[in-house]
Amino acid sequence: MPRSLRGELLGWLLIPLAGLVAFNAWTTYRSAVATANLITDRTLLASARVIAEQVKDNDGRVEALIPPSALEMFASPDRDHVIYRVIAPSGELIAGFPDVAIPPRAPTDLQPVHFEARFRVEDIRAVAIAQPVVSKSAGGNALVVVATSLRGRDRLVTELWLRSLRDQTLLVGIAALLALFGLHRGLAPLLRLRSELLARDPGSLRPLAAENLQTELKPLIDALNHAFARIQTYITLQRRFVADASHQLRTPLAVLKTQATVGLRDTETAAKTEALAAIDGGLDAMARVVNQLLVLARAEPGGAAMRKEAVDFAGITRAALESRAMLAFDRRIDLSFEGDEAGLELQGHVTLLREMVANLVENALRYTPEGGAVSVRLTREPGEIHLSIEDNGPGIPEAERERVFERFYRLSSGTEGTGLGLAIVREIVAAHGGHITLSQRTPPPGLRADIVLPAS
Ligand SMILES: Nc1ncnc2c1ncn2[C@@H]1O[C@H](COP(=O)(O)OP(=O)(O)OP(=O)(O)O)[C@@H](O)[C@H]1O
Ligand SMILES: [Mg+2]
After folding, report:
1. What pLDDT digit, counting tens, does each position of 28-86 carry?
2. Domain end: 254, 269, 299, which one?
3. Which end of the chain lies in a sparser environment, N or C, as judged by fewer CB atoms within 10 Å?
4. pLDDT in tens, 84-122
5. Structural domain includes residue 217
């Protein structure tokens, strides 16, 4: 399900806000009812007091005169019913309606009792007060109850409540608008970034500008730019591979074509065989170029799925030496191997490591004059594996020892080779977290290559 950042942020803001408004509506309703009750109670009490003042003993008879002012207090457009009841200390009803509700408890002294009840079909709010009557016959408290229907009070509640509800809704509305505006402003850089990404040329890996962006977004942009840079590196490597491959294969292909043409034209069998042999040699050289290029592409960062595993480096070295044994035999070179057998394990890539050793050994065998000697030594140091390959050939002048690692850079123009061997070695060593140094063999002449790899 697509998720909108703006929607989510707004949801988190507005849903709790709406909950708060609902809660507030309830509390303001409660407080509006309390306020309206207070106002009604004051009027009821004032009216009851006016009536109570008129309760008098008249020659042994308690009488109550209801002054109109006591009832006029309730005059309002709501036409509320006002009812009352005055009961003498003897318990006799002396004024008002007999069926006005009696308070839940009798008022004492001057403390009024407020209560709600029903009068016929209406809800009422009432007050009861006690009025002491001094009489010759019987003294005591008269009871005055005044009640009113609730139309006026209910209208007051609604008015008070609606007003505060309206104010609050207005406030929340303004807050929501401000939040929307803030959100829009806050998300603007992100949206701008999106449009920039959508609008740019699909092949472009130009880094994105991180100015004007919030600090929270900067790491994202940095990560994207980092990814762009890595992709750019891969693309550059790929392009270089294609360029190298086509460049390296064009000349041998042209030579092959010429040899084939010459062979076809020649009528003598011997000449044809000679052309075929030349083509065969040319094909071998081309196969080697292709192989070296592929190994290099695999060894480059990100070139191969570099799944490393625990490997036995002594076994790998031995296999590499065996693969070049024929070359040593052909050139009558004494190839010796000396290595600690156990504990030469490291995390690595078998094929690449074998290519690394094979390339170094092959160089030593090829550039050493016939009858020379090449010795390979493997030793284990704390946390490291050391591989050294020595020959007693011409060696590499110090000034060239850095450049020979460059692609296609060769010193011995007389011999065959692609100039990729040491470039491959350097990539593989780097991919395994090691390092390589070339130096002069002691005693000279000769070359010594030292590789240090981290052991597992
Ligand atoms: N053991 C060595 N003794 C003397 N010169 C060497 C030795 N190893 C390498 N070189 C010089 O360094 C150059 C680069 O070696 P590198 O292995 O990269 O390429 P290459 O051997 O010419 O070609 P490739 O190995 O790809 O077939 C060689 O051409 C050679 O001149
Ligand atoms: Mg080589």
Report:
1. 999 999 999 999 999 999 999 999 999 988 887 888 888 988 888 888 888 899 999 99
2. 299
3. N
4. 999 988 888 988 988 888 898 888 877 899 999 998 889
5. no
249 and 107 in one domain? no
Closest atom of ligand 1 to 411 CA is: 31
Residues 9 and 134 in one domain: yes
Are residues 286 and 333 located together in one domain of the fold? Answer: no
d(CA 43, CA 47): 6
Judgement on whether residues 438 and 379 belong to the same structural domain of the protein: yes
In a domain, 138, yes or no: yes
| Cα dihedral 316/320/322/327 (nearest 10) | -170
Q: Which are the contacts of 311, defined by CB distance < 8 A and separation ≥ 6?
A: 345, 346, 347, 348, 349, 350, 353
pLDDT at 139 over 90: no
Q: Are 57 and 65 in contact (CB under 8 A)?
A: no
Tell me if 144 sits within 8 A of 86, measured CB to CB.
yes
* Ligand 1: residue whose CA is nearest its atom 9: 363
Final residue of a structural domain among 126, 158, 190: 158
The number of distinct structural domains making up the chain is 3
Q: Which residues line ligand 1 (CB under 6 A)?
A: 292, 359, 363-364, 367, 391, 393-396, 404, 410-412, 417-423, 447
- Is residue 9 domain-shared with residue 148, that is, in the same domain? yes
| Residue having the nearest C-alpha atom to atom 1 of ligand 1 | 364
Range of the domain at 314: 309-454
451 CA to centre of ligand 2 in angstroms: 16
